[in-house]
Structure formats: structure tokens, C-alpha cells
Design goal:
The protein has five domains: 120 residues, 3-Layer(aba) Sandwich (Rossmann fold); 64 residues, no CATH class; 97 residues, Nucleotidyltransferase, domain 5 (2-Layer Sandwich); 113 residues, Tetrapyrrole methylase, N-terminal domain (Cobalt-precorrin-4 Transmethylase, domain 1); 128 residues, Tetrapyrrole methylase, C-terminal domain (Methyltransferase, Cobalt-precorrin-4 Transmethylase, Domain 2, 2-Layer Sandwich), CATH 3.30.950.10. A six-stranded mixed beta sheet has the order 3-2-1-4-5-6, sandwiched between helices. A five-stranded mixed beta sheet has the order 13-12-11-15-14, sandwiched between helices. Strands 18-17-19-16-20 form a five-stranded parallel beta sheet, with helices on both faces. The protein is an alpha/beta fold. Helix 2 packs across helix 3 and helix 12 crosses helix 13. It is globular, with a radius of gyration of 29 Å. Helix content is 30%, strand content 23%. 39% of the residues are buried. Helix 3 links the parallel strand 4 and strand 5. The chain has 17 helices and 28 strands. S-adenosyl-L-homocysteine binds next to helix 15, strand 24 and strand 26.
């Protein structure tokens, strides 16, 4: 089964039409076009190899419109590593051939058939078992788990060698398969949740039909669940989820147990005891209680998404200055899992594109507290919410507003939300890196905006920071509503610094049309600065020298006073 939305990767303009036809098969998939070569893709990438390998490592299924050989060579270094193995397909640029390459257990053949049907060609399926039986026995549909892959491979080759098979238990997805069925066969496909001894003559497939109600108060929870299942003679692979009371939603012990067992955690309104909780959550199941847990065993695989509700999540993320390469991988992963995205429209657009199932809530830049509360209301419903900031969310951005909203709230549902702040590359750091290392020694970061603080405190801090000989980084240096403040700030700094002090102006750093200028404090005027500019002012030790390409390096040495070892 396909776990996540595939990425369609193209190298040239000639592939775009075919890519769009494939997109009709996977409407949520994005077309990634090589920058400078492809116009009109959904997003662009700079380097084919790095992009393909990153997608692979993030377990994203890949549909590459290029020669199979290129894909194989590109991914070769990753193939011996254990870890992700998403489906990977090569599709001919003109759509005439669909070649599943990797990810047999990630449903690559299913995808190949779907794409081929969309392009009205035949998929180049080469998997013997699948060709013969019309299904990959080792890749049961979601809701079922394969017992043992190695035994399974042997089992399939036995069938290919001519052995017959019988089916025990309910395997509705095999109704359409062309298996050599015989009620007397020695070999069997066994579908059921009972624990069984693995044997070469049986292919064990477990329906994920079991939910276990647990409490954070049970000691050593994951082991308790394992031994309770063992006592009840239920296979661990049949476990579909853990259930717990909403009152324990924030418990780290529950989270750890679910992680360790590799299953989702769902929450139900508080009940008298765990047995009742299990019955309420899964009414159709048989419930066995004991050992500090209650086990609910259903006849069919459980639809986990309909049992109780998940713990809501709220992630306050930093996009970095703008360029996709400067976004941290944890933020990318968070963007993929979000159900709701909140933020100032420009940043939400920068964070996208999003899938159709992801709700975007764009707001005006100034409504920070309202946005923070809205985010908690959504997350408290069990949604997975993202609040977007540019740069780092903790630097003059949404993280503090979100925490302030939570601090003010007495709603236990808000305090149960899984809140996480994910950092980003802040504009001062992105600008400094391009200029060299102007913040290489102690520095002071300030916002010159007096929207939320009196101007007098800004003047005082500027004066003291400049006197202390700190390099200075100014966010929000100027705006239409604050026209004179920067001029005044520069006057204060000039009382403590020489006119030759290096100044770096970074505008739209990491975004299209970025500019980086190096000037001096004496030559700096407010007209050179706007609200999309980062202003870095050196300390007395900040210096410059020419770089090989004709530009200039700016840096502040790590030492102060006398150069060590000189
Ligand atoms: N959280 C952001 C800062 C928000 S305050 C961060 O960590 O970067 C907004 C100010 O940041 C702008 O007025 C500008 O001074 C600066 N800024 C943000 N993005 C920038 C960019 N890409 N290039 C230059 N300055 C930027």
C-alpha cells in the first residue's frame, strides 16, 4: 500500500505534460521541476541527485520521469542502508513505459498499474509471484500485517514451484487473486489475530483487529501490554492501537508506550475502568481485562481513525529565511503531517504548496494572539496544526504569542495539546552567513519596532548595547508607520562607534531577488533600508577585506582586546 503522497520528479520541460497526466492519478502529488529547465512545475529543485535521495530517505514514493538507469545510479548509495524503502518508479518522458524499480512492499506494483492505466500503457511488472497470482502476497492491504517477511518469501517461492495452498480465515482481498487453491493443500495462508508458531508451511497474516485500553498508572506499560497479549494468546502484530482516557492525554508514559509498540494512541472520555473504556471505544469487540490493561478483540481490522480521537498537535515552525534548502528537515516533516496551517498569508504561501486536504487559515500579520488562540482551539479538537513564522519562530514571531495564549488559558484541553516549537534559520544568521561572520563575537539582537514596547526602552537598550561594544542586529528596522525611528537609532549608535564601522544590509535574503550590501555606519541612511531588510552593525573589532570574487568579507574576530598567540 502507498503510505504517503508520491513526488513526481521531472528534469525537462518535455516531461511536464506526462507528469500532469500522472498527477491525475495522484491528485495530491506535486511535480518537482529542475530549476532553470522546467517552467510551470508545482515546485522547483536545484539538484537532481540530492533531491531524489532526500525524498527517498523521507520515505516519499518517487515517480521519476527519466531513464531507469539514472534513478538506479542516483539511489544506489542508499540501497544497502536499512530504513526507508518507498516505492520508486521510472516513467518514460513520453509516457510510453512505466517501470517499477524499488519498494515491492511499498506497493510499487500497485502504483505502476495505476499509472499505466492512466497513461493507457502496460506496466513493466517483473515480480514473479505477482505476475502469477495477480497480487503480492507479502504486501497485504492496510489493516493487515505480514507475520514474517523471510518466511513469506520462501512461502511464495514454494507456490511458484507448484505447491497448492488453502486459505484459513477471512482474506477478502485474495478473492480476486489467482492462487493455486486446494482445500487439501499442505500449505496455507492463515489470517487471524491468535498468536501462532511460525512455520514454513504457513503464511501468517494478522488482521490489526485488537485495541488495548491502558492507563498511564500501569508500571512499564509497553511490557505490560506485550505480556497481557501473550497471556491472552493474541499476536502482537494484531495490535492496531492503544486506547486511553482523555484525562491522561498529556502523559509522556502513554506516548512512549505507543511509540515503543509502534501503534497509534487514541483517547476516549474517562470511564469507570479500563474494561468499560475498551467496550465504549470498540463496542463490537470481545473484551478481556487483566494485568492492568483491557484487550478488545474485533472480528475485522479496526478503523483506528474512527476510535475515539487522537491527541491534538500544535507545532510552531520556522521556515527559515525563504529558500527551501534552509528549512530544517523536522519542519518539512511537520508540514507534511499538518491538517491545518495558520499564519500570515505571505508565510503560509511560502510554506506551501499544500495538499487539498490541508486547510489553510490565512490571517493579517497583526492578529498574533487571535491566531494563537485559534490554533489551540483547532489542536484541542485533535487536529494537527501548524503556526508558521519566517526565520525562527522564537525570534520576534509566533512562538512567544502561542505560549502567552496557553499561559493565559485554564482550559485543560489546551494544556493537553502536544505543543512543539521547531526552530528555523533566523534572518540575522542567514544574512550574517552571506556576509561572512559579522556576528562572530558577542552580539545583541533587537527589534526596532515600538508596536509592543515603548520607544524609550529601545533607546536605552541601543545606548547600552552600543556602549558595551556588541555587534548589533536590527529586525523590523523601519516601516511606513515607523519612519523616523531608524534614524534616531543610528544617531545613538554613532555616539559609540566610528563612521568606518562596517554595516551589512541583507534584503529578502534566501528569497527571489535577494540583495546583500556592505557599507559603513557613516554612509548608512534610513532610505537604504526597508521592512524586508536585516541591518547588522559591527562592533569596534568588526573588519572587512576583499574576497576573491570582487565582493567583500565582513567578520568580527572571536577574540577581544589582544589577539591570542599573536
Ligand atoms: N522570525 C523572523 C523575524 C521576524 S521580524 C526571523 O527569525 O527571521 C521581521 C523582520 O525580520 C523584518 O522586518 C526583517 O528585518 C527581518 N527579516 C525577515 N526575513 C528576512 C529576510 N529574508 N531577509 C532579510 N530580513 C528579513
Amino acid at each position: 500500500m502507498t503510505q504517503s503522497t508520491p513526488a513526481i520528479v521531472i528534469l525537462g520541460q518535455g516531461s511536464l505534460a506526462t507528469a500532469r497526466r500522472i498527477q491525475q492519478v495522484f491528485p495530491a502529488a506535486q511535480i518537482h521541476g529542475l530549476a532553470g529547465r522546467v517552467e510551470g512545475a508545482d515546485c522547483t529543485y536545484q539538484e537532481f541527485g540530492a533531491t531524489l535521495r532526500a525524498l527517498y530517505q523521507q520515505d516519499t514514493p518517487i515517480i521519476a520521469l527519466c531513464a531507469a538507469g539514472i534513478v538506479i545510479r542516483t539511489l544506489a548509495p542508499l540501497l544497502l542502508e536499512k530504513g526507508a524503502e518507498p516505492a520508486v518508479l521510472a516513467v518514460a518522458e513520453d509516457g510510453s513505459a512505466v517501470v517499477p524499480l524499488l519498494g515491492g512492499l511499498g506497493g510499487v506494483n500497485v502504483m505502476a498499474r495505476e499509472i499505466a492505466a492512466g497513461l493507457q500503457v502496460a506496466a513493466a511488472i517483473t515480480t514473479s509471484g505477482e505476475l502469477r497470482f495477480g497480487t503480492c502476497l507479502l504486501n497485504p492491504p492496510s489493516g493487515y500485517a505480514l507475520g514474517d517477511l523471510e518466511l513469506g518469501k520462501r512461502f511464495v517461492s514454494d507456490l511458484l514451484a507448484g505447491h497448492n495452498v488453502r486459505i484459513e480465515g477471512a482474506a477478502p482481498w485474495l478473492d480476486q487473486a489467482q492462487l493455486p487453491e486446494d482445500p487439501q493443500a499442505q500449505r496455507s495462508i492463515h489470517v487471524g489475530s491468535a498468536a501462532r508458531e511460525a512455520s514454513a508451511s504457513e503464511l501468517l497474516i494478522y488482521p490489526r483487529s485488537v485495541a488495548v485500553a491502558v492507563s498511564a498508572d500501569t508500571a512499564d506499560l509497553a511490557s505490560a501490554v506485550r505480556s497481557a497479549l501473550q497471556q491472552a494468546q493474541i499476536a502482537g502484530q494484531s495490535l492496531a492501537c492503544l486506547l486511553a482516557s482523555e484525562t491522561q492525554m498529556a502523559s509522556p508514559l502513554l506516548r512512549e508506550a505507543a511509540l515503543e509498540l509502534g501503534v497509534p494512541l487514541r483517547f476516549v472520555a474517562a470511564q469507570r475502568d479500563l474494561e468499560t473504556l475498551a467496550r465504549v471505544a470498540v463496542p463490537a469487540a470481545t473484551v478481556v481485562a487483566g494485568h492492568g490493561v483491557a484487550i478488545a478483540v474485533a472480528e475485522q481490522p479496526l478503523d483506528v481513525s474512527s476510535l475515539g480521537r487522537p491527541r491534538g498537535r500544535l507545532a510552531v515552525i520556522g521556515l527559515g529565511p525563504g529558500a527551501a534548502e534552509l528549512m530544517v528537515p523536522a519542519v518539512k516533516a511537520e508540514l507534511a503531517r499538518a491538517t491545518d496551517v495558520l499564519g500570515y498569508e505571505t508565510y503560509v504561501r511560502m510554506a506551501g504548496p499544500f495538499r487539498d486536504d490541508q486547510v489553510q487559515h490565512c490571517t493579517d500579520n497583526r492578529e498574533e494572539m487571535q491566531r494563537a488562540r485559534h490554533a489551540f482551539r483547532l489542536a484541542a479538537e485533535g487536529r494537527s496544526v501548524i503556526v508558521v513564522s519566517s526565520g525562527d519562530p522564537g525570534v520576534f514571531a509566533m512562538a512567544a504569542a502561542v505560549l502567552e495564549a496557553l499561559h493565559e488559558s485554564t482550559d485543560p484541553a489546551w494544556h493537553s495539546v502536544d505543543l512543539e516549537i521547531l526552530p528555523g534559520v533566523s534572518a540575522s544568521l542567514a544574512t550574517a552567513a552571506q556576509a561572512g561572520a559579522p556576528l562572530g563575537h558577542d552580539f545583541c539582537v533587537m527589534s526596532l519596532s515600538d508596536n509592543l514596547k515603548p520607544w524609550s526602552i529601545i533607546e536605552k537598550r541601543l545606548d547600552l548595547a552600543a556602549e558595551a561594544d556588541l555587534a548589533l542586529a536590527f529586525y523590523n528596522p523601519i516601516s511606513r508607520a515607523r519612519p523616523w525611528q531608524l534614524g534616531r537609532a543610528l544617531e545613538i549608535v554613532a555616539q559609540h562607534r566610528t563612521p568606518e564601522t562596517p554595516v551589512v544590509l541583507g534584503r529578502d535574503i534566501g528569497r527571489p531577488g535577494q540583495t546583500l550590501r556592505t557599507t559603513t555606519l557613516g554612509a548608512l541612511t534610513p532610505e537604504q533600508v526597508d521592512m524586508r531588510t536585516m541591518v547588522l552593525i559591527g562592533s569596534s573589532t568588526t573588519c572587512t577585506f576583499p574576497r576573491g570574487d570582487g565582493g567583500v568579507w565582513v567578520y568580527t574576530p572571536r577574540w577581544y582586546g589582544e589577539k591570542p598567540g599573536a
